[in-house]
Amino acid sequence: MAKDKIRVSKPPEERRQEIMDTAMRVFAEKGYEQTTMRDIASAVGVVPGLCYRYFESKQVLFEQAVRQYVSDYCAPIVRALKEHSGDMSSAFDRAAALFLTSGSREKYDAFFHKEENRTFHTLLSYSICDYMLPFAAEFFDSLNANGTISISDTKSFSQFILYGQIPIINDESLTPEEKAARIKEYMSKLTK
Fold this sequence. Notes:
This is HTH tetR-type domain-containing protein. Residues 13-73 form the HTH tetR-type domain. The structure is a single chain. The chain is mostly helical. It has 9 helices and no strands. The chain has 2 domains: 3-56, Arc Repressor Mutant, subunit A, CATH 1.10.10.60; 64-190, Tetracycline Repressor, domain 2 (Orthogonal Bundle), CATH 1.10.357.
């Protein structure tokens, strides 16, 4: 049996992750539309049927990779919002520090930041906002409860804040530090 044809058994979650990570790399190299499940399987070193065992289609594979990425990416920010000390400034400082230490490099950066994948990057941005919405609303609810702010509809306010940050975060003419400072400045003006 040829070396590249040796079957390697891996735990299901490890194989699933390997397929997602490889797919995102192949999407970045070839483009989403030009990539087939056969291309992904070849890059992983498995037969296409194994990829289909884990993901019924290329679209499902992509959607699950994005969902997992969003959850992983947002976890430290969610933690910062949940662990706030009752004031908005410290929570924003912690969230900004997390943003800055990430180096603003995403796990699937090579795919999402290619100019021809702008639509996919927009999908990612909105997916992050959708994911963060209940956590942001809960954060503002807690600030309402302790009298730090007075906002009548924290869900709408959270949507305004989250979706309003997209143009700033995606502005490549700003450094990560400038992005964080600008968002904090605008937030402080909105909550006075």
